[in-house]
Amino acid sequence: MLSTLLERCFELSKRGTTAGREFRGASATFLTMSYILLVNPSILKVAGVPEQSAVACTALAAAICSILMGLGANFPVALASGMGLNAVVAFQIAPQAGSWQTAMGLVFWDGVIVAFLVLCGLREAVLHAIPRDLRRAIGAGIGLFIAFIGAVNARFVIVPAGTLAALQQNPSAAMPPVTFGQLSQPETQVAVVGLLTTAFLLVRKVQGALVLGILAATMTAYLLGIGQWPASFEPPSFENLFQADLADALQLKLVPFLFAMLMVDFFDTLGTVTAIADQSGLADSDGRIPHLRRVLFIDAISASIGGLCSVSSVTSYIESASGIAEGARTGLHSVFVGLFFVAAILLAPLAVLVPPAATAPALIVVGFLMTLSVTRIEFSHLETGIPAFLTLIFLPLTYSIAHGIGIGFVTYTLIQLLCGKWREVHPLMYGTAAMFAAYFIF
């Protein structure tokens, strides 16, 4: 009975998967994104958001939105509070708004506006207006981005101490932004064990390679003495729920911050959904994604849910690619991830058991798998090849999906105009490129 119900709801056979494979994929996704349970509250507390409640509310919002995505769109992407935007809320918007409650109100209105744009068909139309090679570059660029995040978490890549000291004296100095780490560091040793284990298991085609790699790295962390046990188990607190000040968020002085949030939310998700659909094989030959409008609408209202839960904007997570690499292909994956977050509401202190260095190898390997789409970009067609290349390199180097996409869009549009091929550019690309140009300048 249960198997029949799952088949009818999620089309498991049609997509070549099983409930077991979706569960295994969800385990990998949850392990690679569970860091948000610790990181998000630690960032938001700078703005005054009560930290203990922020842990439970972060888990609650991720659970609600991931389950909504699974049941409502049958798409294998999980959602949680977005990194980057949470820092903007804590360090920029909250001080300008006067309170974190007003900042969360602005997050709510951001989601409402993006949901309206989805219902109007604009968000979907923009995705379809993007040239295919640029879409492939976005997916591959995101792969490089998350591999870079993994390398930083593993301390394979570090910021040179000399650079920090020099920039404090002279902010305009030209210094190397990053350099190599040292294998003598225990975090790096943990990541090496995880990376080699994961790579070996993938080569041998062992199911659950990513999860097993994370577990091997976690055990190594405890052997090396850098594992952390939870200090205490306190009951979850939900005092932060519904504290967003929706009326005060409509101040005129906050409009520029709202526009910046809209740009990031709008295009981060387009990039993430494109990459996940491409990696999972759900996009058709024309790059069209099943139930795309539902996916985009649920992602939009998730931002508002994040505001109401006072955990910043909730968005689609590219770490879902870890689950795709394990074979997940349906929304059942997202439902399972949501259920893991439900459990995390009570077991949130256990999140510290898996250190960032242990999940770093999974991000690096998933990044490799995602960059495979770069082989299908026709770089010989320079009018799209050059913008695609710029998207590839600037997406990880700016540490921003939206900025990488924007640079590619603006470059593509300008090249087409200068070459007299303005008729070949979709009108929406002109509008989008103009918005990005304004965003970059102002």
Please tell me about this protein's structure:
The chain is mostly helical. It has one domain (2-228, 237-441). 66% of the residues lie in helices and 2% in strands. It has a two-stranded antiparallel sheet with strand order 1-4. A two-stranded antiparallel ribbon has the order 2-3. Helix 2 (19-33) packs across helix 15 and helix 12 packs across helix 18 (401-418). The longest helix is centred in the middle third of the chain and has 26 residues, at 255-280. The N and C termini lie far apart (57 Å).
Record the SSE blueprint:
Blueprint: H1 2-10, H2 19-33, H3 36-44, H4 51-73, E1 79-81, H5 85-97, H6 100-119, H7 122-129, H8 132-153, E2 157-158, H9 161-169, E3 179-180, H10 186-203, H11 209-223, H12 255-280, H13 292-308, E4 314-316, H14 320-325, H15 331-347, H16 356-370, H17 382-397, H18 401-418, H19 427-441
Antiparallel strand pairs: 1-4, 2-3
